[in-house]
Amino acid sequence: MWAIQRRLIYFPDSSPVPPADEVIAGARDVTLHTEDGLTLGAWFVPARGRRDRDMAVLVAPGNGGNRLGRADFADELSDLGLAVLLIDYRGYGGNPGSPSEDGLLADARAAAEALEYLGYPPERTLYFGESLGTGVVAALQAERPPAGLVLRSPFTELADVGSHHYPWLPVRVLLRDGFPVLDHLKDSEVPVTVVYGDRDSVVPSRLSARVADEAPSLAEELVLQGADHNDPVMFGPEVARAVARLAASVDKGS
């Protein structure tokens, strides 16, 4: 189990994705350069709609699929006046490398640097983490605090999720990749929105609720009634509007 555990955590779709503008109107391909020498593909989607908020969202996905599956969500955010950087980690979406906790954080650092180059420094950026991506952006915000943080289906730490699904295993002893979300948040002053479904079969809803309870700077807790982890609503307009509300609140307070 120790040897194969990363195959139980990461489920990359390594298929190459099409050019950004073939999928999302006005989008363009962006190249990320990681500190350990990898070159990764990503998509940048400019803000559309009636209002450009002059703010960007770095979208750190969960452990499956690739950015093609998040295109509609990026579209929703763009229509709400937010620019979007839609990334794929190493090993996902035609990118080189193999995923690990340290590797995903390095990929997110490269994404934040790319956004700054595009004109969106951390104080004009929201980090959006989805499921496993909540562990990535929680760590990133501790190093490079953004204007706000959105955690969709977060967990307290990965060992708590593993213990739920594999109660007969000594998960805490075996686990190499910890993703300690609450540890990264404990001293944070970044405003946090927590979104989760109350029927989540992947990340128990009680873990997401605990993140909301213990986040030092909770801006909003949005519970989607009857929603499971990968239901369409979890990638839809209601979640995008929660991101836009956080953007509006931090912009008003700046």
TrEMBL record:
Residues 55-160 form the Serine aminopeptidase S33 domain. InterPro entries: AB_hydrolase_fold, Hydrolase_4. One of its GO terms (molecular function) is hydrolase activity. Pfam families: Hydrolase_4. Keywords: Hydrolase. The keyword Hydrolase applies. The keyword Hydrolase applies. This is Alpha/beta hydrolase.
